[in-house]
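Long-time lurker, finally posting.

We've been working with NADP-dependent oxidoreductase domain-containing protein (Cladorrhinum samala) and I want a structural starting point before designing mutants. I don't trust myself to interpret raw outputs, so I'm hoping someone here can both generate the structure tokens and explain anything notable. Sequence follows.
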Amino acid sequence: MSTKKSTTTTEMLTQKIKLPNSLQIPQIHLGLYEVPPSQTSSVVRTALGVGYRAFDTAQWYSNEAEAGRAISSFLSSPSLNRDGLARSDIFYTTKLRHNYESYDAARESIARSVEASGLGYVDLFLLHSPLGGRKAREASWRALCDAVSEGKVRMAGVSNFGVAHLREFSERGLEREKWPAVNQIECHPFNTQTEIRKVCEEMGIAVQAYAPLARGMRFNARGSKLGGLAKKYGCSEAQILVRWGLQKGFVVLPKSTNEGRMKENADVGWFEISEEDVEVLDGLNEGLVTDWDPTDAP
Ligand code: A2P
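Top reply, 14 upvotes:
Generated this for you. Predicted structure of NADP-dependent oxidoreductase domain-containing protein:
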């Protein structure tokens, strides 16, 4: 059965894993997808209070500036920032909405996001999708790599890239350190993304799992294996899904706007899913796409 582990919620939220590029990344991030700009500030402030240190936004979400401002005001408030956190204790990710064939347009867009964050630099900047074609992916990636060289961005990565898009990095003859640090993809037991993960592993690209809760779409299904496992381990279905992602070695991005659920999603350090039960979860794969899937885009 489960082996009890004693990692606290706070420790879970500060726990980092080492990426193939040797940089470190917190293993649990708060996803800010679909958080309305008007609520972002309070959601980020609440999450910082709970202990979250990593936030995942995007140009597309229209809440980059709000997320950045909430982080800055938390850090500069002695009454909120009781642990004396510094900017370097926070991990801020954003994403380029469009891939541009024009290198200059991509550079400008990246610079605007860095500026909007108000944080001085972005920890991780991703190409949000492979859409736009090979030429646009190439020019936008070059722009991102140059932003890293200039220090405005600490690491560059991709999101929603399929096998063929990932292979382009080796086909282009780019040196290894210019390959993406991460590929952020939808990943949970109902969509295990085996092929893409295999290529990520071969190429030394870390997997970030978005929609790790499958957007709640498979919760509370009568007689489900997920429900059975939650009962067995004495935790919630959400906690089983977060734990599955962590045990696979992914960076997971559960999204919640609710303080209790934010805590619940990170309170997963006290149990471990057995290998046998991880296999049961792997067996739930049905290729569920909760939103979009551009991994086959030309
Ligand atoms: P809410 O923001 O009201 O908590 P995903 O991370 O897969 O994208 O899933 C996000 C969805 O799951 C949101 O609708 C979120 O709603 C909900 N959610 C987040 N945490 C939990 C939880 N612990 N239990 C049930 N639903 C959750």
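Before you design anything, note these points.
The radius of gyration is 19 Å.
The first strand starts at residue 16 and ends at 18.
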